[in-house]
């Protein structure tokens, strides 16, 4: 007998979606993990070949998913980010005092050997379908299109500005 499989549509149709009790309910945690695995698989498609798990999923959601590709030296880590401080929610609020369901940045990661450097995309996410397109775009740009660090940083800045995470008039010191 084949094990059951779930599509993203199946997962979204589940009565517990978006799995708000994942911290205390084992089933919801497993469904959240499955959601992110299927989400990444749906974005990467055939490009999923070559990506391998790096870290086990942690019960605290850090990470909920972590994969690396030895050939491209790219990685992806998805970390669950919840509004624990009860900040006002985007889009009703913007700026540094608002909670956003997506934060993205690059990190210097490592392959499983612990030594080989990997350009890792880190997504701090809450399960908010309004951010689906942006999450998918970041994954696609980093893992499939293999955009450079400078290109990714420009895309992060554009996202942060467009969504009001930062003031477009903010001056950044040269690095």
Report on this model:
The protein is of the alpha+beta class and 175 residues long. The protein has a domain at 47-162. It has four helices and five strands; from the N terminus they run ααβββββαα. Strands 1-2-3-5-4 form a five-stranded mixed β-sheet, covered by helices on one side. Strand 4 and strand 5 form a beta hairpin. The chain is globular. The mean pLDDT is 90.
Radius of gyration: 17 Å
Compute the separation of the termini in Å. Answer: 57 Å
Mean pLDDT: 90
How many helices does DSSP assign?
Answer: 4
Helix content estimate: 25-40%
Order of helices and strands: HHEEEEEHH
Q: Structural class from helices and strands? A: alpha+beta
Largest sheet: 5 strands, mixed
SS elements, strand count: 5
Ranges where pLDDT stays below 50 over 5 or more residues in a row are none
Task: Write out the strand line-up for the largest beta sheet, numbering strands in chain order.
Answer: 1-2-3-5-4
- Identify the overall geometry: globular
Question: Into which percentage range does the β-strand content fall?
Answer: 15-25%
């Amino acid at each position: 007998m084949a094990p059951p499989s779930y599509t993203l549509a199946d997962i979204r149709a589940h009565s517990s979606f978006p799995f708000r009790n994942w911290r205390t309910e084992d089933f919801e945690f497993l469904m959240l993990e499955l959601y992110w695995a299927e989400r990444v698989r749906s974005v990467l498609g055939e490009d999923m070949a070559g990506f391998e798990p790096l870290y086990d999923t942690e019960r605290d959601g850090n990470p909920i998913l972590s994969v690396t590709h030895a050939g491209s030296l790219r990685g992806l880590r998805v970390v669950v980010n919840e509004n624990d401080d009860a900040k006002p929610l985007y889009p009703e609020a913007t700026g540094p005092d608002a909670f956003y369901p997506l934060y993205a940045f690059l990190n210097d990661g490592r392959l499983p050997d612990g030594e080989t450097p990997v350009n890792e995309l880190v997504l701090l996410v809450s399960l908010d379908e309004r951010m689906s397109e942006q999450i998918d775009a970041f994954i696609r740009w980093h893992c499939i299109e293999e955009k450079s660090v400078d290109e990714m940083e420009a895309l992060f800045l554009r996202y942060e500005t467009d969504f009001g995470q930062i003031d477009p008039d903010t001056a950044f010191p040269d690095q």
